Amino acid sequence: MPTRSHLRSTITLLLTLLLSTLTGLQETYARIDDDWWDHQWPYRILLQVNEAGTITNELNFSQEFAKLGISNALLDLRSLRLIPTTAGIPGDPIPFEETFSQIISDADELILSTSYDEMGWGILEESTDFEINSTPKTQGEGSLHAHIEITDTTQHDFGFYYNLVGSPFFDLSDYDVLLYDIYPSISEDLINTKPELVYFEFEGVKNCRDEFINGPELMMNNWNKIDFPLRPYGICAGPDLSRINKIKFFFKKDNFNYSDAAIMDFWMDYLRLYDQEANGQITWNAEENVDAYYLYFDVLRYQYILPLVFR
Questions:
Q1: CA dihedral sign, ordered 170, 175, 176, 182
Q2: Which of 14, 148, 237, 256 would you call most buried, defined as having the most Cβ atoms within 10 angstroms of its Cβ?
Q3: What is the average pLDDT across 258-278?
Q4: Position 107 pLDDT exceeds 90
């Protein structure tokens, strides 16, 4: 028969295991004596390092989330931080490369003399024009600038799009999130008249009642880093993304009330997709004096896409 001391030890062990489960990845993937780098980052993974030099670790975040009991979570790719730890003390984030995301369009890869249609971008009607602009920029050397002048001759739907036909991204079924950076600047009369301006559409999406939805909330005169979940698509839980023709950013003239020609400017860059089901790679340069490397990350907190509100 077990003694009282043995029962107390057993109960203590069970409570410890339960607490470890409830506290999540910190206990599962962390060395017990290592300090936490930043508690705003709720998860971390201990990466494998055998020697100094160039190191590559392969990860499947869907599998990692399944271990944590959050199988429906989506990785916040922008949150990834690689942290070296020495004697249990974390250092500053270090550079790394990842293969989870795939670039669709990056202004730094475009040639200034190239026309916008050769870049893959297009306009819905003549009120919009494109150029490569060196300012403002979110990273690298430049961004794609869409300049829109709304006049009496502007058609009902106007704006711009990226053409996926004939590209490797015609079928988006395997991707989880669309990422892009966007900087809006819009005349005050338009903002005060109607704040819900931008519509978003995957042209060719199936199994959804509405093909276009309201875009996510943006801040004026600032770079907005958008992480757009592909499932759900608006209020559509299971879209068929196997034949997407265009990614469209457009506006409806009926939403505006203006007396003179109105001006809208959008700078865009770093349009990309990622697939967290795939076995992606993290590559960095490991140093001899570092005991361990942790990959810190968070998951996306998203709701169904709400109307766009400038503030």
A1: negative
A2: 148
A3: 84
A4: no
What's the mean per-residue pLDDT of the chain? 80
Whole-structure pTM value:
0.80
Report which of residues 189 and 185 the model is more confident about: 185
Query: Are 86 and 106 in the same domain?
Result: no
User: Which stretches within the chain are classed as H helix?
Assistant: 4-23, 25-29, 61-68, 116-119, 188-193
Instruction: Kindly report the backbone phi and psi dihedral angles of residue 270, in degrees, each rounded to the nearest multiple of 5, phi listed first.
Output: 60, 45
Interatomic CA distance for residues 78 and 41, integer angstroms: 12
The pLDDT of residue 284 = 97
Domain of 50, in residue numbers: 4-98+282-299
Q: Is 148 exposed, middle or buried (0-12, 13-18, 19+ CB in 10 A)?
A: buried
Distance CA 283, CA 99 (A): 9
Question: ∠ CA 118-121-126 to the nearest 5 degrees?
Answer: 105
Q: Kindly tell me the burial class for residue 72, based on how many C-beta atoms sit within 10 Å of its own C-beta (0-12, 13-18, 19 or more).
A: exposed
Nearest by Cα to 281 from 97, 102, 104, 49: 97
